[in-house]
Specification:
Oligomer: single chain
Number of domains: 1
Largest sheet: 8 strands, parallel, barrel
Number of strands: 8
Helix content: 40-55%
Strand content: 15-25%
CATH topology: TIM Barrel
Structural class: alpha/beta
CATH superfamily: Aldolase class I
CATH architecture: Alpha-Beta Barrel
Shape: globular
CATH class: Alpha Beta
Number of helices: 11
């Protein structure tokens, strides 16, 4: 399963990339707006840092014609860019046209198997199944992920399932168990994946024993 970072913050991206943990970045208009910099400038810088890697950048028009026009522009900025398109009727019209042109699309804001099915039919490269927002309304977000993975296997769609709206490390574990193709996480969740109290205790004990022994690596 590919692991992406869900952010537009350059410092977070540089740090995560240095850890060797991520294979791409997903952004959205809200994340970009937080940075207070030109959209194109941010996206191109991310592409230079995370290379190779898929970088998702979202359009903002609501009509298919506008989405297609924006998608062509955004995709021209770097070959690693995947254009995010919302799950709407107009969005799927855009995805169908763009996929036929060879522009990869990440269909975002997908919450149900029915929506995932339509995204796959339209030619989505990634289908972003949101889990956290579904959990927030007392439903099981991972159900649609498992169903979408099974649908792709059963019918041979070329789309990949991308688990999004991740709130905690268990969402990542559940995505792995479900057979998702990718998962995008906030920086905080990425940090949490590294942590375990027994790891910390083990390191402390090993170092204490080493110090008592007087052993050295050099000299």
């Amino acid at each position: 399963m590919k692991l992406f970072l869900d952010t537009a913050n350059i410092e977070e991206i540089r740090t995560a990339w240095s850890w060797g943990a991520i294979e791409g970045v997903t952004t959205n208009p809200s994340l970009v707006a937080k940075e207070g910099r030109p959209f194109k400038e941010i996206v191109r810088e991310i592409c230079e840092i995370v290379n190779p890697g898929d970088i998702s950048a979202e359009v903002v028009s609501l009509d298919a014609e506008g989405m297609i026009r924006e998608a062509r522009e955004v995709a021209s900025w770097h070959p690693n860019i995947v254009v995010k398109i919302p799950m709407t009727k107009e969005g799927m019209k855009a995805v169908r046209a763009l996929s036929q042109e060879g522009i990869r699309c990440n269909v975002t804001l997908v919450f149900t198997l029915a929506q995932a099915f339509l995204a796959a039919k339209a030619g989505a490269y990634y289908i972003s199944n949101f889990v956290g927002r579904v959990d927030d309304i007392s439903s099981e977000g991972m159900d649609a992920v498992r169903d979408t993975v099974n649908m792709i296997k059963e019918y041979g769609f070329k789309s990949q399932v991308l688990v999004a709206s991740v709130r905690h490390p268990m969402h990542v574990i559940e995505a792995l168990r479900a057979g998702a193709h990718a998962c995008t996480v906030p920086f905080k969740v990425l940090e949490q994946l590294y942590q375990h109290p027994l790891t910390d205790i083990g390191i402390q004990r090993f170092l204490a024993d080493w110090e008592k022994s007087g052993a050295k690596i050099f000299g």
